[in-house]
Design brief:
alpha+beta; Beta Polymerase, domain 2; 2 domains; five-stranded mixed β-sheet; 7 strands; 54% helix
Length: 278
């Protein structure tokens, strides 16, 4: 069997044989695939091995989770059955998480070409069509409402003069949470967790202000304080709400608009806080 190599990191034939021996159950396992950095030939000395195991419906295996290969490399294995992987092709969020990875996955076990002929081919042929976009708009709207609570935590954390717990919760929602709203709405098929930030940013190429506010909220530029990052995130929420106003569902509009007004009335000014300069 072929070795999977990148720089100083390598899965040898014996490594692959061990993975197959440890995680195969021939009576229920239809396929075992390698995903992540090893599948993309990007693995480094600290990369883990990402495995997905496909089993027949109703199968319950107890060894999902994290393991060690030869006491030196972490393995994470996830077992899925039809009820799980069918969602990858019908649920907008699941599609954005899985489709790109399936396209480049490498096979370790593939009984009767179950993976390559069915799921991987399906992934290659996947199209983000009008029906998927309709479902994506509904899901993005629902999630935007869910993150409204974090904006209130941010505003209250600021009012209490540096309530760290509230500010940290707000910062998470206003960075990762809002990024997932964009991911779902725009149908961004994320190639890996490590590329998540840049691939979402590429989708915002038409709005430099949003890119800058998002970078500040994530804390990847400058030396901004937690307070400043939350303030940037609140203003990012307002811009995103405006940009996606035609997407919000009727049942969600009132909550989102109320949240925007609440931020506009109570969030500190970006310029006065030395976050952005006119």
């Amino acid at each position: 069997m072929k070795n999977f190599t990148y720089e100083n990191s390598q899965l040898s034939s014996s490594d692959i044989d061990e993975l197959i021996q440890r995680f195969d159950k021939s009576n229920v396992v239809q396929a075992l695939i390698l995903m992540g950095s090893y599948a993309r030939n990007e693995a480094g000395p600290h990369s883990d091995i990402d495995l997905v195991r496909f089993v027949i419906a109703g199968t319950k295996l107890s060894d999902d989770g994290t393991h060690l290969l030869k006491k030196k490399v972490l393995i994470t294995i996830c077992t899925v059955e039809p009820i799980d992987y069918e969602k990858w092709f019908t649920d907008p969020y699941e599609a954005t998480k899985w489709i790109a990875g399936l396209r480049i996955a490498r096979v370790l076990i593939d009984r009767e070409n179950f993976f390559t002929d069915r799921l991987q081919r399906r992934a290659h042929n996947f199209v983000w069509d009008a029906t998927m976009q309709l479902h994506a708009n509904i899901e993005a709207s629902r999630r935007m409402v869910g993150w409204c609570e974090e904006t209130n935590k941010g505003l209250e954390g600021l009012r209490r003069n540096y309530d760290i717990g509230r500010l940290l919760n707000a910062c998470h929602g206003l960075s990762w949470g809002l990024s997932e709203v964009i991911q779902i709405h725009r149908g961004i098929l994320i190639s890996s967790d490590n590329n998540f930030f840049n691939e979402i940013e590429s989708a915002l190429a038409d709005n430099k202000r949003m890119i800058e506010l998002r970078r500040i909220t994530f804390g990847v530029i400058g030396s901004y304080t937690l307070r400043q990052r939350v303030i940037a995130g609140l203003h990012f929420f307002v811009l995103l709400a405006k940009q996606m106003s035609n997407v919000w569902q009727v049942t969600d509009v009132e909550i989102i608009e109320h949240t925007v007004q609440h931020i506009n009335l109570n969030a500190p000014n970006l310029v006065s806080e030395n976050i952005l300069f006119e």
